[in-house]
Amino acid sequence: MTRRGEFELIAELFAPLARTPGALGLQDDVAIVTPSPGHDLIVTTDTVIADVHFRSDDPPDLVARKALRVNLSDLAAKGAKPLGILHALTLGAATDDAYLEAYATGLGVDLKAFGVALLGGDTTASKGALSVTVTAFGEVPHGTAVLRNGARAGDLLCVTGTIGDAAVGLRVLEGRALPMAPAHAEALVDRYRLPQPRVAFGQALRGLATASADVSDGLVADVGHICSASGVNAEIAWRKVPRSEALERALMDDPRLRQSVLGGGDDYEIAFTLPPDRYAATAAAAARLGTPMAVIGRMVAASGGNGVTVLGDNGQAIDVTRPGYTHGQG
Fold first, then answer.
1. What is residue 303's predicted lDDT score, i.e. its pLDDT?
2. 168 contacts 243 by C-beta, under 8 angstroms
3. CATH of domain 156-311
4. Is the pLDDT confidence value at 329 over 70?
5. Chain-centroid distance, C-alpha 187
């Protein structure tokens, strides 16, 4: 196995991606980030680890892109425009130059696609699994970030895209899903491996949404975060939760997958709330940007319970056994 040393790795693979002057050519221990006048800096950090957040046999270019995109999803949910990232890479024992070259290529593709600057980071090695930590910086006009704590009773509860594809895609990769058409299996796996952060639509939510969170741990869990921060409860109608054609087919064959849809995570869509009188403007923004969105329920006054109730077609509450992913769970 061949692998560059730390400084060769930085100079040959990552410094060429760091094109903004504030990165200082990755030749210093700091970067300089200057938000636009009158703006707030939004910062988020996420770590992805082999065989926890991605599979060790996933294509390395997609691993890099997922590591970036899960952070962009956090910025999107706050309404932030991405500015740049710090990128910390802990090499696994089996990470060689061929892997790293493909990884850097994938990272470069998405840095360019999303207009994000690589500002610096760190590179270390371990005897264990490959790990990537990305710290992402974005900006919003002062005071306009869409936080979790603004939802009010009577607000509509909405989501972008479709929910549940990634969780079932992981089950396909792990051999825990019933056989399905190859095209459907591929579509679900693609959603797991390569999230689609709603960066442009997130910015359009400023001034419209009252609260927002990205759906990363699971729909019920992440809506629950909005409930906890806002002091309200939520009612979700199962039949209104948007699902892809591939997922619908899988649910017909195995209705037990409903639990994965509601609490499986890895969707990286946006769950958000808004007053009914802002729905038309929000739907128009979604249409203009080509972002699917759906109303899946409403926010109601807090009355105990765990904050989120999912109602079946018969109006009865569905028992959600695992609302979302929590580290340390089996």
1. 82
2. no
3. 3.90.650.10
4. no
5. 17
